[in-house]
Amino acid sequence: MGVLKKFEQRLEGLVNGTFAKVFKSEVQPVEIAGALQRECDNNATIWNRDRTVVPNDFIVELSTPDYERLSPYSGQLGDELSGMVRDYAKQQRYTFMGPIKVHLEKAEDLDTGLYRVRSRTLASSTSQAGGGPAPAAPAPSGRPGGGPGGGPGGGPGGPGGGYGYPNQPTGAPPMPSAPPGRPGGGGPEHRPGPPPGAQTRHWIEVNGTRHQISRSTLVLGRSTEADVRIDDPGVSRRHCEIRTGTPSTIQDLGSTNGIVVDGQHTTRATLRDGSRIVVGSTTIIYRQAEG
After folding, report:
1. What number of CA atoms fall less than 13 Å from residue 84's CA on the CB side?
2. Residues with Cβ within 8 Å of residue 230, at least 6 apart in sequence
3. In terms of C-beta density within 10 A (0-12 exposed, 13-18 middle, 19 or more buried), how is residue 128 classed?
4. What is the pLDDT along the chain (291 residues), one digit of tens a residue?
């Protein structure tokens, strides 16, 4: 069972249905959980062959209406979201420099239903399992970044670290100039892949129709030349492109109306099984499975 599904079930199982009315809000807690997973992926930093460090301190900015709905449950919700991040890190073999914390804040510039995630890495010499430097156990938002003026995954200038919330570890040892897997300090970061020999199948579901992704890229748009044609006046001729890999990603191709991934307006995002992509008025479900 996926980490997000387990998280959702834990929320539903809380005493007296505490979160019953929370799930009626514009921003769903499970959407925030998905955004925190992406924040970890987008800000993963390789320290050495056996250690990839991700942020451990998160700020979730909400519109005034959404903040007022969720703030009475901020303590329980923060604990559940922290647990979800810990579970996801264990699955991906990520590590932390300190305890995991998730805070909710109100942002006056966000409209209802939009949110923004900022993160940083805070070092702690007293960190313990799940929140400290020991490796996790092996396992088999028209507004980029969810709000006005942001980059994918956070604030101006790209994933994380935006809006004055730096991602560089505080009090951490200096970063190596050329960590393993990134010769010369450049190039893509290494991501843990599936077990040797495993094959991952990728597909999307559009209006109930399944489209297999048999190549490394898939272009979606209104043009007949697109790999998957979407007959929607709000969709551009070449609207966006899905790239399969570890992880898979989606990239806006300069469309008129942009893309929304798991509730966030963005130009580029990481995809995982069950990700919801909205182009125009059409919802697309991204799927992947091993075997």
Report:
1. 31
2. 206, 220, 221, 222, 239, 279, 280, 282
3. exposed
4. 566 667 766 665 553 444 544 444 467 777 888 888 888 888 888 888 778 889 999 999 988 988 888 888 888 888 889 998 999 888 888 999 899 999 999 998 888 878 888 999 888 754 433 434 444 333 333 333 333 333 333 333 333 333 333 344 444 444 444 444 444 444 444 444 445 555 788 999 988 788 989 889 999 999 988 999 998 888 999 999 999 988 899 999 999 889 999 988 899 999 999 999 999 889 999 999 886
